[in-house]
Amino acid sequence: MNEHDSEIIRGVLEQRGFQATDSPDNADIIIFNTCCVRENPERKVYGRVAELKRLKMENPDLIIGIAGCMVQQPGEVERIAKRLPHVDLIFGTMNIHELPELLDQVEAGYKAYRIWEGDVERDGSIIEGLPIRRAPGVSAWVSIIYGCNNFCSYCIVPYVRGRERSREFQDIIDEVKRLGQEGFHEVVLLGQNVNAYGRDLRDGRDFADLLRALDKTPGISRIRYMTSHPRDFTDKLIYEIASSETVCEHFHLPLQAGSDRVLAGMNRGYTLERYMDLVSRIRKAVPGCSITTDLIVGFPGEDDDDFAETLRAVEEIRFDSAFTFVYSPRRGTVAASMPDQVPGEVKTERIQQLISVQNEITEQINRTLKESVREVLVEGESKTNPSMLSGRTRTNKLVIFPLHPDVSQGGLVKVKITETRAWTQIGEVVSV
Ligand code: SAM
Ligand code: SF4
Questions:
Q1: What ligand has the least distance to the C-alpha of 39?
Q2: For the whole model, what pTM was predicted?
Q3: Ligand 2 nearest-atom number relative to CA 155
Q4: How far apart are CA 370 and CA 149, in angstroms?
Q5: Whether residue 150 has its Cβ less than 6 Å from ligand 2
Q6: CB-based burial label for 161 (10 Å; 0-12, 13-18, 19+)
Q7: What number does the ligand 2 atom closest to the CA of 227 have?
Q8: CB atoms within 10 A of CB 228
């Protein structure tokens, strides 16, 4: 979501005549697009922006800005103004459309700070038609719903990105059609909870209807989406995905924890049993699909037994892979003021244990791919080895394979997997 916001910021800047540069030393403007979902990246922003003081002293015309959800936190603008006085420009996730006006202000010699201060209980508006400068490649992000209504107790997103607002059905269809015409082959539909899509539009259409309408868009061979909340994953949606041609057989379903006590404290709205039931319905309807997840260790009050339940759930469900996070308290969230915060060293020990259990499972699952032939969408040259091409299977496994005269970026090729690893599979082209 944050990276897609950066594409819009870049689009707005290019429209104003700016061009990208690789080095901060050559820049006329530097904008940090931040995220406050976890603590670490937030801390880094302060350090990185502080380092730019030197450049600003050498070139007082350099514009330094901070954008993104970090600045939407209460009191953050004042904190930045005090600790980083060389910052000229601050704008929130819902103010990107105001960037030209803010730049006028900065260029006239003033500071420009603008964050969305609407009522988080009410809808914010959606601004259509902003220029988006997408990174060249095969895949394009498309936002379908902004904000979140879930208030998981650990999460800051609902406070900084506001309530759920779905884009109009037709606006999304038109954008994806355009992307197909522009040469993109894959779209990734974005939202904090994509399966809440349409609820606020009240025209009776939901996420499953959107997927059906987007299936077979000319030029678009694959549709992905992130993220879907396990609580809202309906049988209608499973059916739609199972019967669609282009929606990929990959389900990213954040479990977060394996203990029902912790899940209740997190306000996730499901039990482990319900989650496992969903997984088995999905696996039955879409055989061979991959299932990945997000997991948090060290939620307040998580004891050894709770953590053991997470490990057991991971072993039983056997995810293809998992994003694992150490819980970090976020200002203003319910969990931040819960008693029994878990000590840092316990969290570190638990995450290491969790990662090692999951890595073993990932490797075991990937080993079963050996000798099989998979459809791969070619993304281009491998980032780590320029004599190889890289791409992904429909189940979102990264595959690299030797350059081939008939294979180019955006092509769908059949690749035989010859060697498997945790993160990258190696293969050879069998047909184009
Ligand atoms: N909306 C998505 C969902 O509910 O699955 C995920 C959005 S969140 C930006 C991405 C992941 O960050 C979450 O699934 C969760 O695992 C993790 N996360 C969120 N808040 C966190 C916190 N305070 N500490 C650690 N991890 C956190
Ligand atoms: Fe955060 Fe929960 Fe919303 Fe995801 S669903 S963004 S974890 S509050």
A1: 1
A2: 0.95
A3: 1
A4: 42
A5: yes
A6: buried
A7: 4
A8: 21
State the distance from the centre of ligand 2 to the C-alpha of 335, rounded, in angstroms: 13
Mutate to test the pocket of ligand 2, among 69, 143, 145, 152 (most ligand atoms within 8 A of CB): 152
Mean pLDDT of 173-177: 98
3-state helix, strand, coil in the chain (%, to 5): 40, 20, 40
Using the structure block, give the residue that is written with the tokens 């924890």.
Answer: 257
Instruction: Answer yes or no: is the C-beta of 268 below 6 A from any ligand 2 atom.
Output: no
By DSSP bridging, strand 89-91 and strand 112-114 are parallel
Alpha-carbon distance of 177 to 185, in angstroms, equals 11
Q: Interhelix angle for 344-367 vs 304-317, to 10°?
A: 10
> Residues 9-32: pLDDT tens digits?
999 999 999 999 999 999 999 999
CA-nearest residue, atom 4 of ligand 1 = 229
* Average pLDDT over the chain, rounded to an integer: 95
Where does residue 251 rank: exposed (0-12), middle (13-18), buried (19+ CB within 10 A)? buried
- Give distance in angstroms: CA of 154 to centre of ligand 2: 9
Whole-number pLDDT of residue 122: 55
Q: What is the distance in A from the centroid of ligand 1 to the CA of 154?
A: 8
Question: Which residues on neighbouring strands pair with residue 166, listed in sequence order?
Answer: 145
Beta bridge mates, 33? 67
Give 290's strand partners: 250
pLDDT in tens, 285-332: 999 999 999 999 999 999 999 999 999 999 999 999 999 999 999 999
Q: Is the peptide bond before 234 cis (omega within 30 degrees of 0)?
A: no
> What's the burial of 426, exposed, middle or buried (CB within 10 Å: 0-12/13-18/19+)?
middle
Provide DSSP, 257-303: -S-HHHHHHHT-S--HHHHHHHHHHHHHHSTT-EEEEEEEE--TT--
